[in-house]
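Supplementary Methods, section 5.1.

A reviewer requested that the exact input to the structure prediction be made available. We therefore reproduce it here, unchanged from the version used in the analyses.
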Amino acid sequence: RKKLGINEDVKEFFSIRDLDEADEYFTALTEEHRFRLVGKLVSLALDSKESDARLVAVFFSRSSSQCECSSDAFEAGFTPMVELLDDIAIDAPKAFEYMAVMLKGAGLDKDEERLKRMAEKMMDSDKLFHVVSS
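The structure derived from this sequence is encoded token-by-token as follows.
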């Protein structure tokens, strides 16, 4: 179910947009693979439109509150995208804004330690703090 399953789930998520259906995406994966689903959703939403970023944020918020995805998995999934954010923003000017929406959905805006670790991977770490706190 791993790689192929994640790609299928992500495709289905953005086409059906059903959060109840999506609830089982995390639970179907073992804990060590959940970060992959996070990364894939974040990656696609950054390149998409605001409604997609908001949908991912709501899904992350639900998954976080239902303990279906740990803060560790969220951090591991977001980090590679945060590292690429400056580059992504060249072609997707709203990438920072969308990233902030999704980080807040995952509750990572309230975890300064994790946010700091992710921000350190960027050229301008203050930029991430700025968009998340605005």
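Residues 49 and 129 are 22 Å apart (CA to CA). These observations are discussed further in the main text.
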